[in-house]
Amino acid sequence: MTLIIFDLETTGLSPCHNEIIQIAAVKMKVGCWEPQGHFDTFVRPQARVPRFITGLTGISQAQVERAPSPAQALMAFTQFIGEEATLVAHNGPGFDMRFIAENCTRHGLPVRPTAMMDSRAFSRKIWGGRGGHGLDPILHRLGLSADGVKRHDARGDVHLLAQAVRKMWGQLVPDFQSCPVELKTGVIPALPVV
């Protein structure tokens, strides 16, 4: 199974009112767990990046001013994903996939269905209701260090998330022969017709 572990940074929490400003992803094969490719891009929003978001993510207005438009960035992302892969994001169904779906609608991009997993489902299966299921508590419980990684920058977060997913998957299914969590369905931009 090919996984696309990805993360978005946005100007806020509402897919209807806020915008994507960064997309990063790493492509991995279950069981191999070596990166098969990386993707990252800033995304040019219509509104200015709020100061609070710059403080949290480190992403400035200058970094996004000449970045690809949302439609261009999402089309590049879907080409990186390819024909068939399972997407993995932390709170993906509730956050990342909602932003992607809303942006496809907003920018008139046709969509295709995709399988996806919420990495929090791994955590809930291992630890139940204990200790929270944010990325930082999960990294702590797994003994993974974020030292030297810029948190809330999608490029750093996807690499941390990839390590966490690998470790949690291995705890649940040591031979990696089956998927330990429920697959959900989301949408991403359709691939261009060639």
Automatic annotation (TrEMBL):
UniProt entry tagged with the keyword Hydrolase: yes
Highest taxon in the source lineage: Bacteria
A Pfam family annotated for this UniProt entry: RNase_T
Stretches assigned to the Exonuclease domain: 2-174
Official protein name in the record: Exonuclease domain-containing protein
Keywords: Exonuclease, Hydrolase, Nuclease
Tagged with keyword Nucleotide-binding: no
InterPro entries from the UniProt entry: Ribonucl_H (IPR013520), RNaseH-like_sf (IPR012337), RNaseH_sf (IPR036397)
Source organism per UniProt: Prosthecobacter algae
